[in-house]
Design goal:
37% helix, 318 residues, alpha/beta, 10 helices, two-stranded antiparallel ribbon
Length: 318
């Protein structure tokens, strides 16, 4: 079975809430912090609740979780693919920080196959922090990260589309790299490109089936609540301009907002979520991603409220 990316985004999940209501998807991000005996229950529950997609972070470790359990994204997604049947799965996001396009392509093709064509690849330029230095390299400057991403993404695109790839780059090369039989989804798994700067937005316009933002990259948690939507609105306008310059309709891209990096509190109650979701739907966001609750952490939320949001929230938008 080969399913074009445009076809898989509009499905309705049986046994749960509709995958898309009122022009929006609702998805979740599940941190890879649980031993699989417990983790698999969460991924199955996400499917039962009717989430459109369940993503996980692709880091070696992350912020306040650095000295706590943290598992690999690709093995977690592979396991999740065998534990679920309908929900889409993905990274949010992977980056060049500790990956190479040749090896990543092989892993993505495998997850896409195991999942039966349910993989979405959230991908970005990476950043500072533990991932940037864990393999022994010096942290890259913002310019080098952008330069590397500018090679990484086109090469990954080619690797996933073709049986054999040879390309020589400054940072990333491939020599007769084979990827047979290729992705289940055609022409490849969809890319959701995380970008706010001009170079990243150009890559999103050229290669993306979706675009991801979490707010102001300079410090989203410091932006006053009332100003947060204006930040996203300005980013969407820049995305539209980039798409226009590339000769593409920005409406072709899913516009994804990852919750949790701003001062907004949409998971405090169902009403708070509905207000939040409505504001961003009006701006053009088409997919909201909310964090699965993690006790005693920055993602601590009432599980009962979270499940009500999952099953009732978007339906209340009207």
């Amino acid at each position: 079975m080969r399913t074009p990316p445009s076809d898989v985004h509009g499905s309705t999940l049986s046994g749960g809430a509709p995958a898309r209501v009122s022009g929006m998807h609702l998805s979740t991000v599940i941190l890879p912090i649980h031993r699989w005996s417990e983790g698999q229950k969460i991924w199955r529950r996400a499917e039962e609740l009717g989430f459109h997609a369940a993503y996980t972070y692709d880091h070696l470790s992350w912020r306040s979780f650095r000295d706590e359990p943290w598992f690999g994204a690709v093995p977690t997604l592979t396991a999740a693919a065998t534990a679920t049947e309908r929900i889409r799965l993905g990274t949010l996001v992977t980056s060049p920080n500790f990956r190479h396009p040749v090896t990543l392509a092989k892993e993505l093709i495998t997850v896409d196959d195991v999942s039966g064509g349910r993989l979405t690849v959230g991908i970005g330029a990476g950043g500072t922090g533990f991932d940037a230095t864990a393999t022994g390299q010096e942290a890259w400057s913002p310019r080098e990260r952008a330069d590397r991403f500018g090679e990484f993404l086109p090469l990954l695109d080619e690797l996933l589309r073709t049986d054999a790839t040879t390309r020589e780059g400054t940072y990333y090369s491939a020599v007769e790299a084979r990827n047979i039989p290729g992705c289940v989804q055609t022409p490849r798994v969809p890319f959701y490109v995380a970008a706010t700067g001009p170079r990243g937005l150009r890559l999103a316009a050229e290669y993306g089936q979706g675009w991801v933002t979490y707010g102001d990259p300079r410090g989203p948690a410091d932006v006053p609540v009332e100003q947060a939507p204006a930040v996203i609105a300005a980013q969407i306008e820049k995305l539209r301009a980039a798409c226009g310059a590339a000769g593409r309709d920005a409406g072709e891209l899913e516009k994804v907002l990852l919750q949790g990096s701003t001062a907004e509190k949409p998971l405090a109650s169902v009403d708070a979520f509905v207000d939040w979701a409505g504001r961003y739907r009006e701006l053009g966001i088409t997919e909201l991603v909310i964090h699965w609750p993690v006790p005693d952490s920055i993602f601590e939320n009432d599980p009962a409220v979270f499940e009500r949001i999952a099953t009732e929230g978007l339906a209340q938008l009207g």
